[in-house]
Amino acid sequence: MTASDITDGITTNGDISSTRARSATLDGALSAVAEHEPHAWSTRWPLNSAFIFTFGALGGMLFGFDTGIISGASPLIESDFGLTVSQTGFITSSVLIGSCAGALSIGALSDRFGRKKLLIVSAILFLLGSGLCATATGFLMMVAARIILGLAVGAASALTPAYLAELAPKERRGSLSTLFQLMITFGILLAYASNLSFLSHNLLGVRDWRWMLGSALVPAALLLIGGLVLPESPRYLVNKGDIRNAFKVLTLIRKDVDQAQVQLELDEIREVAAQDTKGGVRELFRIARPALLAAVGIMLFQQLVGINSVIYFLPQVFIKGFGFPEANAIWVSVGIGVVNFVSTIVATLIMDRFPRKKLLIVGSIVMTVSLAVLAVMNFVGDVAVLAVPTMVLIAFYIIGFAVSWGPIAWVLIGEIFPLSVRGIGSSFGSAANWLGNFIVSQFFLMLLAAFGNNVGGPFAIFGVFSLLSIPFVLRFVPETKGKSLEEIEEDMTRR
């Protein structure tokens, strides 16, 4: 007699009321199985929720690390390879080409082959891209390496939010899914620290920028190790008819509830999965148009409010706009990175205490006010004395973003799509994010130059998008706090 046999007998009938009637005997039956089978699947892998969610979110750390590391390495690469400014800019933005392609392709593959397998593929791409970046011998090889790295970053950005959302209990899904954004900000901070640590240190005769880029191999290896031992998503397993392993995974990650509650959750997943049709682009547009509109819109706004102008170009803002020396400008970016990371920790703590929509609106208001004051101040004031007030206002803008739009956008794209198209839906949302990222990164320096290096110009434009995000949230974004993924699916399909 096996645990699987008992599970099959329990789950043959999806009727929730009959499951409740049997719940009194369920715990005893499973305990008896445990006594006869002490080496069951869950005990062979001594994982706990902290391990699962931390390693599951490592894709976010690599996302952030590879976003931040190029800011310190690109001037050194330009000098070493004798590149033009446009070539250096293309090396920076080439990762976005791969990211968009990776985000669009990973969803359908993850719906077909599973979240776990594609996490492993992403880790391998991270290793390959990081290694090629560190050993690149010229412009073309560096661009190719950055595109491969982009494939990994885009895949992780689409895959990880859906994976975390499908593992998390509904009461803590917001805070646990926010780990992805927390890891992004932690990765950016680590990248800044790596840049400072290796700068001007040509260890073993190897140029400093190669060490900077090569340091990404460490978190990439951790993601690969984590991917090998992480469980598959129970919702994916149910969708593929593997009820036995879905029950085992839920039992593993729901250690704080009894087996009867695990069974009720499994029955709810099965009931909704039985109603789903075959996933694909056609089905995405047929059954999930409200979710798709919300996901694409929220991801575009997350970028068009200008966050990556700060991540990519803040040192240049203070060098060109306020005449800062390069070293001082880099330290400003480190300080803002700390503010971003600490604010995201706060977001993790409060995410499940407040409605998602209210947090988004409050964040939009904080960003709009901060950017409006910054723009007016730099247009009418004496720029020579405005560097410190500008830093303070950028810090407030970062806080507004980090406790709202930063994490919630990634939480939502993992929540709002039906199970049958969750992977491909998250891909479309993530691809929209990379499109917005590309727009901001390509045109920010041009905007700064167009306004005579007055930072008020581009930040005023970002303030307009912050303001426009408020009516978008009110009209198109659903409230998901405290609801199961199955309840959200029912709500969205009725829209």
UniProtKB/TrEMBL annotation:
Gene Ontology molecular function terms on file: transmembrane transporter activity
Primary localization class, coarse: membrane
Alphabetized SUPFAM superfamilies for the sequence: MFS general substrate transporter
Topology of this chain in the membrane: Multi-pass membrane protein
KW Coiled coil (keyword) present: no
Pfam families the UniProt entry points to: Sugar_tr (PF00083)
Subcellular location: Cell membrane
Gene3D superfamilies: MFS general substrate transporter like domains
Membrane spanning residue stretches: 50-70, 90-109, 118-141, 147-167, 179-199, 211-230, 291-314, 329-350, 359-380, 386-413, 434-452, 458-477
GO cellular component terms attached to this protein's record: plasma membrane
Source taxon at top rank: Bacteria
Entry keywords, A to Z: Cell membrane, Membrane, Sugar transport, Transmembrane, Transmembrane helix, Transport
InterPro entries: MFS_dom, MFS_sugar_transport-like, MFS_trans_sf, Myo-inositol_Transporter, Sugar/inositol_transpt, Sugar_transporter_CS
The protein's name in its UniProt record: D-glucose-proton symporter
Species the sequence originates in: Bifidobacterium callitrichos DSM 23973
